[in-house]
Write a structure and sequence with these properties.
Immunoglobulin-like
């Protein structure tokens, strides 16, 4: 029996030595695996299935964080057979955090324009990178639980609009409240088993409260994009007509470079209208209003000035996006952009273009959507 225990201890020490040797490679590798899994997940399966997987990640992350703290609080942890799981636990946390944060990044990236939502996108990207660079900090319960709550809140803000088929403010607030209550219960239960958590329980509640206030502040400042809406396609045209469920688009010929680099110039005759077309993805049964905010760049004040706000209603459920357009007359020469927004002013994307007044309109090519 003693000999067997010695052999087990030697075997564990060898595995631990191997882990310590390659830890710097294993942790970022797990992060990359999490990113790849997310990319494949959101490309190949339904959104509802993807959310189910993310919820599983969330449960695994929470369980692993609890296990680490409970295991480390036990005096006789050296004899516990679960020490192998404890050795692998940082890798599990790294993978699940990477998957959860990268999922949020993917959704927030495609549901808004970077020029508006960059603070939130930067925070998520920073957490993903720091998950590896500052991995020693992630061993702190306050940091682990703080990041875990951020991921929980982010996932709630993704799922609740799909559940209620709404992007109203109350849906976002409800997601935040539910996630905060879940974290309150999680910390309270964990504090009963772990003295270290019990000693910092009040500080943890403060961390959760500050994150809750911060994310709600970003939302009501319209920094957080209107998930689950996403702009699939947008363009500026000389004419747009709807016929038999199709949109007939008449626009200028574009080179490959023009398609890659945004900011095309449209050449129109004086008095001619300009059309902005957009296709927006929304989940089934979602019914909301989209705003095309036509803005002109004033070169004297160096500011964008809103000239017109044109609206149309969209209905979700179409993978290619629900199509709509607006037309603007009396368009002067210069720099223009059309901000595709919700009624609250949350920006899904921006279509930038220049207008040049010409005597003869260029030859146009027609396409259908």
């Amino acid at each position: 029996m003693i000999k067997e225990k010695i052999q087990q201890s030697i075997r564990f020490l060898r595995i631990q030595e191997m882990y310590d040797k390659y830890e710097r490679l294993l942790l970022p590798a797990m992060l990359v695996v999490g990113l790849i899994v997310d990319f494949i997940t959101f490309r190949t399966i339904k959104v509802s299935t993807a959310f189910t997987i993310l919820c599983v990640y969330l449960v695994i992350a929470g369980s692993t964080i609890a296990f680490i703290n409970i295991f480390d609080s036990r005096i006789r942890r050296g004899r516990n057979r679960l020490r192998y799981l404890r050795l692998a636990s940082p890798l599990i946390v790294q993978f699940t955090f990477g998957a959860l944060l990268s999922a949020s990044l993917i959704f927030y990236w495609f549901s808004g324009t970077v020029s508006v939502s960059w603070p939130l996108i930067f925070i998520i990207a920073f957490l993903i990178v720091s998950n590896d660079v500052f991995k020693d900090r992630y061993l702190s319960p306050k940091v682990q639980i703080g990041v875990y709550y951020f991921a929980l809140f982010s996932l709630s803000s993704l799922i609740f609009p799909f559940i209620f088929n709404s992007i109203s403010a109350w849906v976002f607030v409800l997601g935040g409240v539910v996630s905060a209550l879940l974290m309150y219960a999680y910390i309270t239960l964990l504090a009963k088993s772990v003295e270290d958590i019990r000693n910092v329980k009040i500080k943890l509640f403060w961390v959760i409260g500050l994150i809750f206030i911060f994310l709600n502040g970003l939302y009501f400042l319209n920094v957080i994009p209107p998930i689950p809406l996403s702009l699939r396609e947008a363009g500026v045209y000389h004419n747009v007509k709807q016929s038999s469920g199709l949109y007939m688009l008449s626009g200028e010929r574009e080179s490959l470079l023009d398609k890659i680099i945004p900011g095309q110039t449209i050449h129109i005759e004086k008095g001619q209208s300009v059309y902005a077309y957009s296709a927006i993805f929304a989940p089934a049964e979602l019914n909301t209003v989209i705003v095309h905010n036509w803005e002109y760049f004033d070169s004297d004040t160096r500011r964008w000035i809103s000239k017109d706000k044109l609206t149309f209603r969209i209905y979700g459920g179409r993978d290619e996006g629900f199509r709509g357009y607006s037309a603007k007359s009396q368009v002067s020469a210069g720099k223009w952009r059309v901000s595709v927004e919700t009624e609250r002013g949350q920006v899904l994307g921006r279509l930038r273009f220049g207008v040049e007044i010409v005597d003869v309109a260029p030859d146009l090519i027609k396409s259908t959507r």
